[in-house]
């Protein structure tokens, strides 16, 4: 059985960035409340901007935190933050596609799988361990469901 789980290093790095953003937001609000070193326009633009970026990063981290297991002709997805676990047969796959993008001389891969109940999930090689084994397994067990890209 192949278990794909979030990479700890990725989530550690994202958590550090999130803490830096939240620290910056606290600094901005404290500076505004006490000393006001900058103009009002700076605070009105920077505080909401840092808040929105922090929330987007937090939501991305929460949505991407999933565990996928594949083996014995089944795919099990577990979303611990939502408390949802679903098991699908490989026959329930409507389509799957692997996208590859080269950026900064590194290859980014992402696989999307759609099931017959219209549920779908994505996973990438930068965020999950055992990604390559997962794609090889899908290629062997469900090659007819793969979406061909040009």
Automatic annotation (TrEMBL):
* Assigned keywords, A-Z: Membrane, Transmembrane, Transmembrane helix
- Highest taxon, organism lineage: Bacteria
Sequence intervals crossing the membrane: 9-28, 40-59
What is the name of the protein in this document? PH domain-containing protein
